[in-house]
C-alpha cells in the first residue's frame, strides 16, 4: 500500500504562500492554505521579476505563462533627479549572462497565475490565526494551527469560513508576511525595523510612452523608480524620509508628492498628475532583523515572514519564490532517500557548501522531514541574510541627503564600468533551483 501523502498547512495566501503551496503540490503533498482576508487578492502595484525568480517560476511550471503576461524590461539604470544617467544596464547583456532579462507585470497578475495553479488545493479564507504550536519531529507530534475570531459571512473561496478550529499538519509554513502571526507565535523576539523611509506606489499613464526608459533615479534624500507595464501604463515608486511628514490623507499626500517631485525628470511629474488619490499607495518601509533560524519544530518560515527586506534590490518576491522551490525540494529530497543507502555526510556537499540533504539521514520518515527542514534552513539563511544586508545598504545609498555626499555618490557610480555593474549582479541572480 502506498504511504499516505504528507499534509502541509500554509499560512498566508500571498505570493510566498501560494508559490509554496504549488511547489509542495507538485511533489505530491496535500496542502491547505489559510488566508486571513475574505479573498485572495493583491494590492495593485507593479513587480519586477529578475532572472532568479523566473527560474523559480520555471521550476513551478509557471515561467512561460508569467513571461507572456509581463513585459521584458529594456535597458535602464540609475539617473539623477534631472534625468542624467549615472549607470546603465543593458538588457541584452543581462539576458546573455543570466539567461533572462527582467520581466515586469502587475502583482495581481502574478498572484492570479499562482492561484490558478492552486485550483486543486484546499484554500480557506477568513481564517484568523490565533496561535501556532510547532509540534516535534522527535516526539512524532504534528504542528497545530489554532484559529479564532468572529464568524464571517461569505468571502471564502470554497464557501466556508472557519472559527475555533485546530488544523494539524506534518509541517506548517509561515508565509503570512512582514507582520507574521506564525513568526510572532514562535519567534517572539523577532524585530521588525523601520528603514526611516516612506514610499508611495502608483500605476499611471503618460502622453509619450515610447520615449520612457525604466530605472531608478536618485535625488538628495529622495529617490524614485519607474517601469513600463505591458498595457502601456507605467508603475512608479517614490521614496522620501519619514521625517518629511507625508500627510496621512491620500488626497493631501498626492498633492504633497506632486509638489515634492515637480522638478524631477519626465515622466514622474506627469504620472503623478495622471492619477487620482485612490490610486496612490503610501506606506512606511520596514525590514526584519536577521533571524538565526527559519525552523522551529515542524514550522518553517518563507518570504517576508522569514526575511522581509527593503525593496532596493527588487528581491522581496523573488526570494519568496526561491524559498518555495527550495523548501519543497528539500522536503521531497529527504523523503525520497533510502536511509540505509545514504552516504557519509562528509562525502556529499551541495554547491553552497552545505551537506547534501540525503547525506545524513538515519531512519524514519519523520527524521527525514526534520533533515529536510534543517537543510532548507542551511540553504537559505546565508543567502537571504546577505541579500537583505545589501538591499538595506542600497537603500541607504539612494537616500543620502547632503550636497557633498550625494555629489560624491553620483560621481562614484558614474565611473563604474558597465561590465563591473553587470558582474555585481552575480551574487543576487546566479541562483539555480535544486
From TrEMBL:
- What keywords is this UniProt entry annotated with? Monooxygenase, Oxidoreductase
Q: Does the keyword Oxidoreductase apply?
A: yes
Q: Which residues form a coiled coil?
A: none
Which GO MF terms are attached to this record? Answer: FAD binding; monooxygenase activity
Q: Where is this region: Disordered?
A: 341-365
Q: Please list the residue ranges annotated as the FAD-binding domain.
A: 8-333
Q: Which InterPro entries match?
A: FAD-bd, FAD-dep_Monooxygenase_BioMet, FAD/NAD-bd_sf
- Per the record, where are the segments of Low complexity compositional bias? 341-360
What domain of life does the UniProt record list for this protein's source? Bacteria
Task: State the protein's name.
Answer: 2-polyprenyl-6-methoxyphenol hydroxylase-like FAD-dependent oxidoreductase
Q: Report the source organism.
A: Prauserella rugosa
Amino acid at each position: 500500500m502506498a504511504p499516505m501523502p504528507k499534509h502541509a498547512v500554509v499560512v498566508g495566501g500571498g505570493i510566498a504562500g501560494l508559490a509554496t503551496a504549488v511547489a509542495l503540490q507538485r511533489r505530491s503533498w496535500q496542502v491547505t492554505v489559510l488566508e486571513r482576508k475574505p479573498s485572495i487578492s493583491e494590492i495593485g502595484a507593479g513587480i519586477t521579476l529578475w532572472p532568479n525568480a523566473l527560474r523559480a517560476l520555471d521550476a513551478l511550471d509557471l515561467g512561460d505563462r508569467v513571461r507572456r503576461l509581463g513585459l521584458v524590461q529594456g535597458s535602464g539604470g540609475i539617473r539623477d533627479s534631472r534625468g542624467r544617467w549615472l549607470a546603465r544596464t543593458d538588457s541584452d547583456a543581462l539576458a546573455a549572462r543570466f539567461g533572462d532579462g527582467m520581466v515586469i507585470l502587475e502583482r495581481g497578475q502574478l498572484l492570479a497565475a499562482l492561484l490558478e495553479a492552486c485550483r486543486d488545493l484546499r484554500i480557506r479564507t477568513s481564517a484568523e490565526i490565533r496561535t501556532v504550536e510547532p509540534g516535534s519531529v522527535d516526539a512524532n507530534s504534528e504542528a497545530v494551527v489554532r484559529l479564532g475570531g468572529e464568524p464571517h459571512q461569505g468571502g471564502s473561496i470554497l464557501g466556508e469560513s472557519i472559527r475555533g478550529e485546530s488544523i494539524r499538519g506534518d509541517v506548517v509554513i509561515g508565509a503570512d508576511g512582514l507582520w507574521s502571526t506564525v513568526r510572532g507565535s514562535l519567534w517572539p523576539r523577532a524585530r521588525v525595523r523601520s528603514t526611516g523611509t516612506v514610499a508611495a506606489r502608483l500605476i499611471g499613464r503618460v502622453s509619450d510612452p515610447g520615449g520612457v526608459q525604466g530605472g531608478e533615479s536618485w535625488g538628495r534624500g529622495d529617490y524614485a523608480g519607474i517601469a513600463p507595464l505591458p498595457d502601456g501604463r507605467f508603475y512608479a515608486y517614490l521614496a522620501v524620509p519619514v521625517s518629511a511628514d507625508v500627510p496621512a490623507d491620500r488626497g493631501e499626500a498626492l498633492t504633497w508628492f506632486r509638489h515634492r517631485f515637480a522638478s524631477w525628470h519626465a515622466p514622474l511629474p506627469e504620472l503623478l498628475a495622471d492619477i487620482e488619490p485612490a490610486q496612490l499607495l503610501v506606506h512606511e518601509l520596514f525590514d526584519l532583523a536577521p533571524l538565526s533560524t527559519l525552523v522551529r519544530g515542524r514550522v518553517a518560515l518563507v518570504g517576508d515572514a522569514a526575511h522581509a527586506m527593503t525593496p532596493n534590490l527588487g528581491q522581496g518576491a523573488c526570494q519568496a519564490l526561491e524559498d518555495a522551490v527550495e523548501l519543497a525540494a528539500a522536503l521531497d529530497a529527504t523523503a525520497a532517500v533510502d536511509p540505509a543507502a545514504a552516504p557519509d555526510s562528509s562525502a556529499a556537499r551541495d554547491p553552497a557548501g552545505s551537506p547534501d540533504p540525503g547525506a545524513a539521514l538515519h531512519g524514519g520518515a519523520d527524521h527525514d522531514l526534520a533533515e529536510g527542514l534543517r537543510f532548507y534552513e542551511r540553504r537559505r539563511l546565508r543567502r537571504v541574510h546577505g541579500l537583505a544586508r545589501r538591499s538595506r545598504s542600497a537603500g541607504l545609498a539612494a537616500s543620502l541627503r547632503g550636497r557633498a555626499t550625494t555629489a560624491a555618490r553620483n560621481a562614484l557610480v558614474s565611473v563604474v564600468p558597465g561590465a563591473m555593474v553587470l558582474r555585481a549582479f552575480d551574487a543576487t541572480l546566479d541562483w539555480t533551483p535544486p
